[in-house]
Amino acid sequence: MIQDTALVFILLVHFLADFCLQTNDQAIMKSTDLKHLQRHVLTYSLCWVLGAYCMLSSWLLALSFASITYVCHILTDFATSRIGNPFWEKKDYHTGFVVVGADQVLHYLQLIYTYEILSKI
């Protein structure tokens, strides 16, 4: 079971990388332009190289964590940004935020399970 400090750290790094460091253009354009999606996910994953090193104390495990996270994050954002975009365009904010919430749950689960697995190595 994940430690409280590791969980809080994961949530904070995720917030910084997924929200604070995502540009407005990336947030708006990632549902229609792969270049913006890739830049967002690359920035996000680079944050996790350092974040995972702080948690796992191994550069190899940190790079593994960031690589797994890159693949999972780009697949998740590719799907959820395209699912959510029509709702935002129709100003159906409730459903748009439901999609954002689902996106976040998928990210949290991936990060927690990846940490759980790699911390046992």
Can you walk through the features of this model?
Helix content is 85%, strand content 0%. The longest helix has 31 residues, at 59-89. The two termini are 15 Å apart. The chain has helices at 4-20, 24-29, 34-56, 59-89, 93-118. By secondary structure, the protein is mainly alpha-helical. The model has no long low-confidence stretch (mean pLDDT 98).
Fold blueprint:
Layout: H1 4-20, H2 24-29, H3 34-56, H4 59-89, H5 93-118
Helix pairs in contact: 1-3, 1-5, 3-4, 4-5
Alpha plus pi helix count: 5
General shape: globular
- Estimated share of beta-strand residues: under 5%
Residues in helices, as a percent range: over 70%
- The total count of strands amounts to 0
Extract low-pLDDT stretches.
Answer: none
The computed structural class is: mainly alpha
Elements, N to C (H/E): HHHHH
Task: State the end-to-end distance.
Answer: 15 Å
Biggest β-sheet description: none
The oligomeric state is single chain
Rounded radius of gyration (Å): 15 Å
Compute the average pLDDT: 98
Offer a few descriptive terms.
121 residues, mainly alpha, 5 helices, 85% helix, 0% strand, globular
Short description:
The chain is mainly α. It has helices at 4-20, 24-29, 34-56, 59-89, 93-118.
